[in-house]
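Sequence design from tokenized structure. All designs in this work follow the same two-part layout: the structure record, then the generated sequence. An example of the structure record is given first.
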């Protein structure tokens, strides 16, 4: 397995997962040993054994309730072993893989004592078995305690996590509703991609896909096949509707490998006698390191004294990227202070159960983490005591860690937009038999010891209230390009920096930019919580 940097990866939104899970999640990578290219390997150190019970196996599988064994005893015993020098897979069964899932989960899962011990031979697929190796408790607000539990093809995961490469068209959709009457709108496109080259514009609504009506059509197989192509070179016909005019535009999109451009629309905006830096930051992946450094060097040269950080669609990624970003914002006085500290389950109060390392805080730093640039590279520091973050339900994981980490050292964070997703948890992505498993293993807390934001961070006036911080709720404005100073959330952010208030401005821009498809509540776009297949029929 490829040696990966020991960096926390707090997840972005899954786009190409075959299971079509539409949750915003977080992960971390680990230091592993061996060669090859299939992603993280087995843990470096043995995992502990839960004391055995007196229960006996009644099925013949070898399962004894309460006796879990060591995950390394079951790893790489695969129903479909991979060939090649980089893999240690041997012939096994689904039951063998389920035994590995069970042992690994009961050892490292944050809430291991809330998992029901189920015979690995009772379910015929690893996906089904993994799905029950978690807590089914709910939070005080009534939401599932564990909303972030998933698997990913190891080869595809490595491409996505390391370089942002995925198969698709280069368009991100805002999913307002995924069951009839469905409504998906273009949120943004990646540059130099089929979607970007075709001229898709923010706010366009999907009208039909390969001849199937998107709003009411029952053939979800056709819709999903086009929206999530399985291979490169697939051609699918999309018809979009320009909402304001009702005009329809037909576009043939060909799937290709898409490389994410995580940092976009970098600019310095004059505001009175000062300049405000703005950047759209969509992904905490490795390639963001150099792009963020370049952006902040530009801010320094422009004399920027305020910053608007647009993370409304940033579902997370590497925590080391989040730490670097926060360090460049807070500057010199923050260096050496705690950015984030990981808390694992009760079996591991002082040791990381995956790497075997003694737990220590992640600290603000003056040099780069070293993903794609030298770790000796000095970071450009803005030395700001406040930052405006444009937020939404897609602001998750590492993005929330930036907010929490800055607040922990006294930097004022102002939210313009909506409540963030609520993800203070993380996990290591561990490969077994070609599947990478993500099971919650830790909670992140800031320098003040705070990490309880499972309902997200909220600006005043947000419909769904989490931990309230300064700022104001503003609807997502799909009528304007991201980075346009007239876009509602950015306009309100600039108003806040100018006047210290945004209530009057927010009300004005919301009224002025009301989307024709606004809901009764007046929300321009309000994404539904997606918990299963991306597209569904009504039952």
């Amino acid at each position: 397995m490829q040696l990966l940097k020991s960096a926390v990866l707090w997840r972005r939104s899954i786009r190409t997962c075959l299971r079509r899970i539409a949750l915003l999640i977080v992960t971390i990578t680990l230091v592993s040993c061996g060669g090859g290219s299939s992603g993280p390997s087995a843990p470096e150190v043995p995992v502990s054994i839960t004391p055995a019970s007196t229960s006996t196996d009644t099925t013949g599988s070898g399962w004894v309730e309460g006796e879990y064994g060591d995950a390394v005893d079951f790893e790489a015993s695969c129903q479909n072993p991979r060939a090649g020098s980089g893999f240690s897979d041997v012939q096994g069964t689904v039951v063998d893989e389920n035994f590995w899932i069970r042992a690994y989960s009961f050892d490292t899962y944050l809430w291991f004592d809330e998992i029901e011990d189920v015979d690995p031979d009772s379910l015929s697929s690893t996906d089904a078995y993994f799905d029950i190796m978690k807590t089914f408790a709910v939070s005080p607000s009534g939401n599932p305690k564990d909303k972030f539990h998933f698997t990913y093809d190891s080869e595809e995961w490595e491409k996505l996590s390391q370089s942002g490469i995925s198969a698709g068209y280069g368009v991100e959709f805002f999913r307002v509703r995924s069951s009839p009457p469905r409504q998906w709108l273009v949120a943004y496109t990646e540059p130099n991609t089929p979607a970007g080259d075709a001229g898709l514009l923010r706010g366009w609504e999907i009208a039909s896909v390969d001849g199937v009506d998107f709003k009411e059509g029952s053939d979800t197989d056709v819709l999903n096949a086009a929206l999530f192509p399985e291979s490169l070179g697939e051609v699918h016909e999309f018809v979009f509707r320009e909402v304001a005019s009702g005009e329809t535009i037909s576009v043939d999109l060909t799937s290709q490998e898409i490389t994410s451009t995580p940092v976009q629309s970098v600019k310095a905006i004059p505001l009175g006698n000062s300049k405000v830096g703005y950047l759209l930051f969509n992904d905490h992946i490795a390639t963001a390191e150099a792009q963020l450094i370049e952006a902040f060097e530009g801010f320094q040269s422009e004399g920027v004294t305020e910053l608007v950080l647009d993370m409304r669609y940033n579902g997370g990624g590497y925590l080391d990227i989040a730490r670097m970003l926060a360090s460049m914002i807070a500057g010199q006085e923050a260096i050496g202070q705690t950015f984030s500290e990981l808390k694992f389950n009760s079996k591991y109060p002082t040791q990381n159960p995956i790497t075997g390392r003694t737990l220590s805080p992640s600290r603000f730093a003056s040099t780069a983490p070293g993903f794609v640039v030298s770790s000796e590279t000095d970071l450009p520091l803005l030395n700001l005591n406040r930052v405006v973050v444009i937020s939404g339900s897609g602001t998750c994981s590492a993005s929330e860690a930036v907010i929490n980490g800055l607040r922990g050292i006294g930097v004022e964070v102002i939210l313009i937009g909506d409540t963030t997703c609520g993800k203070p948890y993380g996990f290591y992505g561990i490969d077994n038999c070609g599947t990478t498993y993500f099971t919650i293993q830790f909670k992140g807390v800031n320098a003040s010891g705070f990490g309880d934001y499972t309902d997200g961070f909220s600006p005043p006036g947000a419909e769904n209230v989490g931990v309230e911080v300064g700022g104001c709720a503003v609807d997502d404005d799909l009528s304007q390009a991201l980075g346009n100073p007239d876009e509602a959330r950015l306009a309100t952010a600039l108003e806040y920096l100018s006047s210290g208030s945004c209530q009057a401005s927010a009300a004005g821009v919301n009224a002025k930019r009301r989307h024709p498809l606004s809901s009764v509540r007046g929300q321009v776009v309000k994404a539904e919580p997606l918990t299963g297949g991306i597209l569904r029929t009504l039952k």
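Residues 94-108 form the longest helix (15 residues). We note this feature because it recurs in several other targets discussed in the main text.
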